[in-house]
Amino acid sequence: LRNELVLTFSETMNVSSLNPTAISIESSLTTGGSALRAAAVRSELARIVQIKLAISDVNAVKANTALATEESNSFIRILDFAISDVSGNAVLPTSLQVSRYVQDYSQPQLLYFEANMSALQATLTLHFDETVRSASFLFRQFEIHNGLGRQVNLTGGASQSHDSPIVVVTLSKTNTDELKEFTDLGINTSNTYLRIGTGGYSDMTGAGIQNLAAPRDLRAFVVVPDTTGP
Please, which residues have CB within 8 angstroms of residue 156's CB and are 6 or more apart in sequence? Predict the structure, then answer.
């Protein structure tokens, strides 16, 4: 996953003068978009400047389904203090449509999760490597197990979050009660694992099979046990 902007200028630029906050990705020549907050560059002096976007900027763009999803809604706006040439001359401000667009075909990955069993209905806080569509969750593809054969297959749930790389989901009362019946599941990080089957969630590009998550077992990063009396 490259997450890059490649800018071609008419002359050699002093890449160290780059100010990413003066660059924004827009959905058209006239409407607003998402201004960059941080970036990394690959060279010092160049006519072709490769800008590696910060993950926070990438997620902000991906959360907007009307922005940078194809060539027709991918524009860039550059202000005069965005970058200068080797003589210190500021770039001319401009807005341009992209000349080449590369689709996002990467699979979203669950990095880690936290389980909170102390509430009436347990919650899972899921941390992904990119923005995911919160409405895409298929809870019947979720399984919480202890790594030793004890498991609870979810039958329902609800997302408490907007489209984001961090999504909080509330388990059903039925599934919460099932989990709390056991003394060897959901008690601590050593006996709490999450398995999400293929198609359990997707990223913002839609339901294409290349963007659906593959099955994976992940041990809980944090578990808050149930300490609330009935």
Answer: 139, 171, 172, 174, 175
* Cβ proximity of 169 and 157 under 8 Å: yes
The C-alpha angle with vertex 212 and arms to 35 and 136, in degrees rounded to 5, equals: 70
pLDDT digits (tens, 9 = 90+) for 49-98: 999 998 889 998 988 888 998 999 999 999 999 999 999 999 999 999 99
The β-bridge partners of 41 are 51
Residue 141, CB half-sphere, CA atoms under 13 Å: how many?
15
Task: State both tokens at 67.
Answer: 């922005």
pTM: 0.82
- Residues 213, 196: Cα–Cα separation, whole Å: 8
Tell me the pLDDT tens digit for each residue of 117-134.
998 999 999 999 889 988
Q: Round to whole Å and give the CA distance between 87 and 138.
A: 56
181-219 burial, b for 16+ CB within 10 Å, e for fewer? eeeebbbeeebbbbbbbebbbbbbbeeeeebbbeeeebe
